[in-house]
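Bug #77: duplicate submission created two jobs. Keeping one. Sequence:
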Amino acid sequence: MSLEKEIEDLGRDYWQWRSVQQPRSHDDIPRLERPRNWRPAWSQADVLSYQEAISTFNNRWQGINVGSAVAPRVSKEDWVDYQLIGSAISRVTWELDFLKIWQEQPRFYIDQTIGVVFDLLLPLKITADHVEQTIFVLDGTQQILEDGIINLKGHAVGPYATVAIDLLADIENQISQLVSVLGSFTDPQRAAILKNSGIKASEAFVKYRNWLKANLSSMKPIVAIGPEKYQWFFENVALVPFANDELRLIGQIEWDRAVTLEYLSLNKHRNIPVPPIPKTDTEQVDNEEKSEVQVREFYERENILSQPKSLKHYLNAPLPNYLAPIKWLGVTDDLTGPSRVDEDGYSYVPKPHEQLPYFYAANARDTRAGIVHEGAHYQQLAISWRHKRTLRRSYYDSGVNEGIAFYNEEMLLAAGLFDDAVHSQSVMYNFMKLRAMRVIVDVSLATGEIDIPTATLYLERKVPMDHGTAYEEAVSFSSNPGQALTYQIGKTQIIKLFSDAIEAKRSNSSGFSMREFHDYLWLNGNVPLSLLRYEYLDDASEIMQIQQSKDTHKERGENGRR
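Kept job's structure:
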């Protein structure tokens, strides 16, 4: 069997397994299309089977000799695909054996139950079949939560449990409202069954919440993942070439830059009134539809990014009343999926009012503020899901996805998209500030240099934000190290790739095409940027940096495992 066929077969087998095993997340980028009537399984026996399976996949992966980046035994494209499988395998190890989310984080089991219902109900058009699948998931809630209690005993982390308790404070009423509205999408008999399933799920959640409260005082404190394990993640999963200190330095430099630019922008436009909030969600939906067309025309007119007719639209819609009670379970958008690339994507918006949270208010005043980020996600995913190399249609790490979306914000700002909306310029600079700050907090928490109270105080003063929100952010960063910094670090890698691509074209006397560069980047928008640098520029420097760091840690006996 050829090496290429071995890579293809391993990738196919892995993703067939992962589509069932991958835990549900409240993030929108890693969402998977699941088999019908899928629900998570997290008993102790299930976890053991996952650990055994990933060990087998890892042995198969290591048994394929593709050579090194400087002396590959396959094409660059196949070499990159092979590395993607390694990243995907390492992510499962990270989840199961490093973060131990199934043992330490009570919110995990909220995501694996009612969180699955949230994902099922994201498409714009809900049918009786969605109701049937919702019944199936609700009926499995009790077993999953009971398995969760078994797994959490003696391992749960107190601050994570506090977050879960707060999230479940009104879960009975939320499920009751959900099934009441959802029942109108099916016949009365099935609606009655749905209602009964909702009651049983609510009872299971109350029992779970009470168990968390009763055991909270004896639960463990948060312990930082530590610098070695943190570095392991970047070397093996994210494939990022920077050391921890370099990550923090990037964050600090970008923070200083963003603070300065935001201040200058606010001062420059201090006498210009801020645009009003739309009066209705329908008005905002109409505004966004027009703005989305404008952004697409801008891409084409400025020769930035191709907008093929086959690429559907990213639109807004009013938040459905069946989603409203459980909107806290994830990002309220439907970015579609590999089998639905011929459908428009939607972001559900709340009814506008003057007290909207910051991001919602920014998007309401100028819908392009959301289009240039979440809209970029929709386009990148829709384009990547059409990739002829099937391994590149899947999610590996948020660094490239969030990096593209954040890069897209500043790129379009610099290109002139917001020349007609001066306060939106200030908003873009504020977004830059927030993403840079997240790097500093992410690194400092993960390496144990600061604790949750210190991070909370830092966020309160720097952003600024209220104490409660700052605490929730700090706990969230701690529970998923390496995620909050993906926006900034990914953008930094893209900017360097862009700059080096210009220089490379000049050196060989060929012209640089911004459109060609961005078309390549969006098409391969699930592939870590160190691998794209190797493939696009034939530059293995970042890959070599990662390998040298891994070799150094291996010599020291640091494998990062708990």
